[in-house]
Amino acid sequence: MRSKIDCFLVSTLPDVAAQNSLQLRDDKVVNSIITLDVPEIRSTATVKAIAADAKARYTMLVTKPTPFIMGQYAAERMLRAAIYTGAAMVYSDYHTVSNGKREHHPVIDYQEGALRDDFDFGSVILMRTDLIKEYASSQTADYKYAGLYALRLWLSTKGDIFHLNETLYTEEELDTRDSGERQFDYVNPRNREVQVEMERAATAHLASIGALVDANDYISPDFHEQEFSIEASVVIPVYNREKTIRDAVISALTQKTTFEFNVIVVDNHSTDSTTAILNEYKDNPRLIHIIPERDDLGIGGCWNVAIDSIHCGRFAVQLDSDDLYSTDRTLQQIVDAFYKQKAAMIVGSYRICDFNLKTLPPGLIDHREWTPENGMNNALRINGLGAPRAFFTPILRQLRFPNTSYGEDYALGLAFSRRYRIGRIYDELYLCRRWGGNSDAALSIARQNANNLYKDRLRTMELRARRRTNEMRSQPAQGVEIDMDSSLARFFNRQLEVWDDARRRYNALKNVLTRELHDDATGLTIKAQYNPARIVSTGARIDKAAIRNRPCFLCKGNRPDVQMVRPMTGEQKHSRLDLLVNPFPILPTHFTLPAHIHKPQLIADVYPEIYRIVDAYPTLTVFYNGPECGASCPDHLHLQAGTTGLLPIQTQWARLSRSLKQLYTDTDGASLSLVQDYVCPALAIRCASEKSFRHLFKILYHALPAHEPEPMMNIVAWRVEQETVCVVFPRRRHRPACYETGPMVSPGALDMAGLLITPRKEDFDSMTSATAGCILREVALDDDAMATVIDNIKEKKRSGDFELYMQKVPHVTVGIISGEEISFSLNAPYMAKGETIEGQQKVVYSEGSILWNGNKYRELVFTPSQQHHGDEPSFTIHDVMIGIDFHWQRREAQTFTGILRMVVHEDKVCAINELSVEDYLSSVISSEMSASSSVELLKAHAVISRSWLLAQMRRRHDEQAAGSGFFSFVKKDNELIRWYDREDHTIFDVCADDHCQRYQGITRETLPRVREAVRQTKGEILVSGDEICDARFSKCCGGVTEEYRYCWENINKPYLVSVPCPYCNTTDQKVLSQVLNNYDQETHDFYRWTVEITKEKVRKLLNDKLNLDLGSIVTMEAMERGKSGRISRLKIIGTERSFTIGKELEIRRALSDSHLYSSAFDIEDKGDRFILHGKGWGHGVGLCQIGAAVMGEKGFRYDEILLHYYKDAEIKKIYR
Predict the structure, then answer these.
(1) In the 8-state DSSP scheme, what is residue 510?
(2) Maximum distance among all Cα pairs of the chain, rounded to whole angstroms
(3) 587 touches 716 (CB < 8 A)
(4) DSSP label at 584?
(5) In 3D, which of 310, 276, 311, 309 has the Cα closest to residue 293?
(6) Contact status, residue 1022 vs residue 944, Cβ threshold 8 Å
(7) Computed from CA positions of residues 371, 376, 377, 379, in that sequence, does the dihedral angle turn out positive or negative?
(8) What Rg, from alpha-carbon coordinates, does the chain have?
(9) 3-state secondary structure labels for all residues of 160-180
(10) Residue 492, phi then psi, degrees to nearest 5
């Protein structure tokens, strides 16, 4: 053969080396023999040395320093295999010699998932030299132990690793330990350094092939997604364990917990006395003894029987029939860990012991190679995860065990770790007893190979699944089915498993007859569905007498016992609905969402939930039937939801959306439009925020014809990419005239959306597109009524601006101080509880009330006496905290005018000042600005302060009117994105501190120039369309202002965009003193600044402020920046885990004892510390105060200053 081999041997004793070289020297396919004199054969240095010295086409490496004997023409045979297959690497079976005895040692085929670093290739492997050289030249990692392992993984991506199952050589076997002892080598602490390197190499390989799991993508389980009467079940599969089963059962039954648990023993048709022993516990209600109907089950199959049982609890916890729990608190520890770690699976630690509980090597197996950051990836390299294992039952029911008696637990661990966190307990929980009856104490080579082959197969499946998951994540599929990994799918599937009637109807739905009806007038296609089960709804009587005489089937007490309920409050905090599987389906997945309490079907009470549900579950369509528009239960408020993308209006939406006629748009780009080319009148809302949805829906609702109890309508809403589409079908009739004579159709939301439900076969057969269109148009609004609706909407658009105008100066409520007691003095006569009060006062929180002068009140209001003459009445509150969490934080007495209100809030007394907006502004601007400020700057500040205040007041009013709040944070296991805004205030409009606007009443003398600036701009605000501008401002933007969404909610405000600011780079003290009033002037070098902070200080700050323990801090990375360079998402990487924080103020607070100047900084990593190179002071959104001060000094008018920073806004006067 022309091809030759360079052979590399490991340096060893001279006589062994000579013997090994001699047998290869005369082989005609061997080009050269090179003895490697290296300290570690597995290192990267060895690989590079081989690459440098190898000259032949193929390289043979002998990895052991022991004597070996090549078989007849073995090298040539291996070479032919490499040439014929084009493989990157070839290996073969071999013989072993141990204690003078030779035995055949077969090895297994390599596959994609054969990622174990201890994979048995034997000691002789053949590789393509060109690939070794390519690898060596491109390799940057330097491994001491994982060099050969990394090479093998890389070769597997370049070609086949081919197993020639012929016995080609004999090697001496030095490791004669049983398999049960060798299997724990990878968890031996002495091998930790080796294992860390192997993990690095495996992780790099997974990343290179697109199969790496990122813990940041994990789903947090909702432990209340289903109802369980039992919190936890100990599961014990058993077959013929009469020697151990009693001990196991006692160990489980004697657990001490704060919750209900049971023990499910699946007795797999034992033929010894195991069954009789279990029968001794038949009177113990906690023991559930199950003998499966099937006789072909392995351990995994027995587990499936247990978890499918109605007796199975929320968590299923392993106990093998050989083993014991270490203490009577093991079960409690495991369940606590689920909630604490928010994990879907928990793995503990176990101790190897004999039957007498004496510790055996290697003792405690804690699998510390599993780290929160990378355990899920390292799991593909190792052969086990640990014990005991415990699972969140709904997810376990979804994934299920393979029906095997080996590797079934490992298969589940891999599958769980792809999507969910696996929690760890490193304390000893479990005693793994080794005895002669154990199945894995000492395995033959054949059995070891079979086990390893199976686990490699599991890893291959999992690797491909992870790669596919990553591909789907990067290119989201446009499917309509519910994500089968979702809690919603698990709930749905479990309901069908336990409810026979519902399952039968859903199965029947798969074969339901449908017909497409082409409408010639519009060119659209609508569908008819023959669904006899829906006669229950279509034929329902909804007159008052009928409703009064029947029990409400949506009320909890009247539902079938088998019907499961999923509270929607798990994901949507404001939701007042439950979720049920609809037992009479129209769609492949069909839910009903009734209100918790029995109340009439009125959309005004529930419409925000439509957006929230679609937003939380994009694979669902949500629909609503009005009380006289198809609702079969008009006396109980409910929505419905189901599989999205199936309705004719959805399948043809791309066409319909092209001809929409816009009637109204808001400032966020959301629109309310007429659907022009549909078979019946319809209106469509398209939006990307709940705020826009609520706004537009209210406009639409009030534009519809009045009707009792509400305007007649049907609603269908779904998600199209990042947009929510909500189509409203205005109605005038409940049922068409043909309902009694035929066809029998009672149109609801799905019918109006183009899917006509016909419960009678004759109606289905005779339905035509003309008939269907007539039915829908007959119950919909006629053309004249629809024209009036359109006019009403357009009139709303025209009159929108005038809603801003007010008859008189509004009043504002300001939160001043909150505490268990508040001391204050009334500096003039005030009225309270019918008495005239003056002088020193004190109120104290007491048992939910306010204690004042010996009496308790829920609220106290002190109003200036009308009998007072002289200076304006005032009151002084002592010990008011100002500059909260800033470096100038301090307490002082502050004096205010107006009304003083004391209320109970969150177990404290809260003092609230009520006064006119104009008086409030005089104080705010006097606190914010100095006497030297230019009049134009003060006027600009008056407008933006007034605009900001009125925007917050309107927003708070809107939220309260809607009966729902909002969140100023997004919290995940690995991320906290929080922004600070007036949303935190629910009992007053704004607070008195810098959190809103700095308000100090008349503590500081109101400056005459300020009073004049406020007077000259009285009633003037910034508006954008019909929206009052949320006019933000900060001290110094640093040269470029920031966009709103990088500091607060993820929405765009067209007037709060990033603009260059060439004015704020100044050191002119005259200018700076206009803005940096009093203690603000303690801050220097804010345009460009540098802060040095140690990594230990960062660790401590995160621990103290956010209760975050990331271990030692490794580095920090900016994950997202705004247009000004401000970081909105900062990833902090520790030795234990990584965590991302945002937005800008949260970052500033987290990295400083008080605040960083801004989050616009670059990070310089100096090993044990960070140097932050920053710019600007504050969030940088909207007006830059220092830049505006410079503009004022340069002669710019106040309107020019405002419109420089607030693009496309207008200045309007809304009261005089």
Answers:
(1) T
(2) 122
(3) no
(4) S
(5) 309
(6) yes
(7) positive
(8) 37
(9) CEEEEEEEEEEEECCCCCCHH
(10) -60, -50
Six-digit token string for 3? 């091809």
Q: Quickly list DSSP for 1076-1124.
A: S-GGGGG----SEEEEEEEHHHHHHHHHHHH----SSEEEEEEEEE-TT
Strand partners, 1021: 1212
Q: Of 967, 1128, 977, 1095, whose CA–CA distance to 216 is shortest?
A: 977
Which residues, given as ranges, of the chain have pLDDT below 50?
439, 476-480, 570-575, 799-803, 961-967, 982-983, 1079-1081
CA distance 1076 to 185: 66
Show the tokens assigned to 1008.
């005459």
Tokens of 611: 């957006």
Angle at 26 between CA 25 and CA 32, to 5 degrees: 40
Cα 196 off chain centre by: 30
The confidence score (pLDDT) of residue 445 equals: 92
Q: Hunting for tokens 């090993």 — which residue is that? A: 1167
**pTM for the predicted model, two decimal places:** 0.64
Burial class (CB in 10 A: 0-12, 13-18, 19+), 271: exposed
DSSP code of residue 444: -
Question: Quick check: 447 and 406 in contact, CB under 8 A?
Answer: no
**Distance between CA 259 and CA 125 in Å, rounded?**
57
Which amino acid, residue 728? Answer: V
Query: Are β-strands 5-10 and 58-62 bridged in parallel, bridged antiparallel, or unpaired?
Result: parallel
Residue 369 and residue 385: Cα distance in Å, rounded? Answer: 9
394 secondary structure, DSSP code: H
Q: Which residue has the tokens 């008819």?
A: 528
Per residue in 947-991, pLDDT (tens digit) is 988 888 877 766 654 444 444 667 777 888 888 764 457 788 888
Q: Which residues in 1093-1119 are b (16+ Cβ under 10 Å) and which e?
A: bebebbbebbeebbebebeebeebebe
Task: State pLDDT tens for residues 196-225.
Answer: 999 999 999 999 999 999 888 888 898 988
Residue 584's CB: how many other CB atoms inside 10 A? 18
Instruction: Name the nearest CA neighbour of 863 among 908, 905, 822, 811.
Output: 811
Enumerate the β-bridge partners of residue 170: 69, 95
Angle between helical axes of 147-156 and 44-53 (0-180°, round to 10): 60
DSSP code of 369? T
Q: What is the pLDDT of residues 1036-1064, one digit of tens each?
A: 999 999 999 999 888 888 899 999 999 99
